[in-house]
Amino acid sequence: MPNDPSDKPRRIRVRREGPVLVEGPVEVVLEDGTSAVSDRCVVALCTCRRSRTYPWCDTSHRRRA
Fold first, then answer.
1. Which residue has the higher pLDDT, 10 or 39?
2. Contact, 44 vs 57, CB < 8 A?
């Protein structure tokens, strides 16, 4: 099917001072083998590891210690 949305590459936006934004839905496989799933149209993945909802960003990167 040439117009199948799954044929399009996923868009990923990398931000210098923030999360990585990924067009969803997504499944994130963590180091320990567990996975986190979101069906949102865009998800924010934490890159600073400060998030209390890791792997999802909760904007904890804005609070500097």
1. 39
2. yes
Q: What is the pLDDT of residues 2-17, one digit of tens each?
A: 556 667 788 999 988 7
Q: Six-digit token pair at 4?
A: 């199948």
Task: Let me know the angle formed at the C-alpha of 24 by 19 and 27, rounded to the nearest 5 degrees.
Answer: 85
Question: What would the pLDDT profile of 16-26 be if each residue is shown by its tens digit?
Answer: 878 999 999 99
DSSP calls for 32-62:
TS-EEEE-SSEEEE-SSS--TTTTB--SGGG
Yes or no: say if 28 and 44 are a contact pair by the CB < 8 Å rule.
no
SS3 state of residue 5: helix
